[in-house]
């Protein structure tokens, strides 16, 4: 038996991910390759304390991984470019698309999966708040819904996602509400 709480959490997520992948493989033997990993940290942008805590967590991530802005900002998701190194997106301070809240996110090569995932597992709980983190693969741009809904897992309680964002050919990226959150 695993005694350390973090290792129990990691073990749980690994089992869940393995089961999901096994079920998917059984249903579809032509799975696309997982080329990158995407991490989302949703937060409530209309409450100042949530925004400050989200900024603090993002700042800690940047510092701990030696990333700087603007050099390490990811290209826009709609560019369909493949990143070759760890990078962060500009925070999305509005609800819309897949997310029903604001969020900040990270792209990671598969080779950094362990380090980045462990960092989020160990650091998502700040002194004032527990953040949930969605982890999902990036396959190709034909499987965006599966990336977000079938092949994902959460550290912390899962957030509700807008499952209709990818229907009828949508790319899930439309923003519908502008909120004031300064990063």
Distance between the termini: 42 Å
Order of helix and strand elements from N to C terminus: HEHEEHEHE
The backbone outline, from C-alpha atoms, is: globular
Low-confidence stretches: 173-180
Strand content: 5-15%
Please tell me how large the radius of gyration is: 16 Å
**How would a textbook summarize the main sheet?**
5 strands, antiparallel
* Computed structural class: alpha+beta
Strand tally: 5
Quickly count the helices.
4
Q: In what order do the strands lie side by side in the largest sheet? A: 2-3-1-4-5
Mean pLDDT over the full residue set: 77
Share in helix = 25-40%
Could you explain the architecture of this structure?
31% of the residues lie in helices and 15% in strands. It is built from 4 helices and 5 strands, in the order αβαββαβαβ. Strands 2-3-1-4-5 form a 5-stranded antiparallel β-sheet. The protein is globular and about 45 Å long.
Give a concise summary.
The protein has helices at 5-27, 48-64, 113-123, 144-149; strands spanning 36-43, 87-88, 102-109, 133-138, 153-155. It has 183 residues and is of the alpha+beta class.
Question: What are the defining features of this structure?
Answer:
183 residues; 4 helices
What is the topological layout?
Layout: H1 5-27, E1 36-43, H2 48-64, E2 87-88, E3 102-109, H3 113-123, E4 133-138, H4 144-149, E5 153-155
Antiparallel strand pairs: 1-3, 1-4, 2-3, 4-5
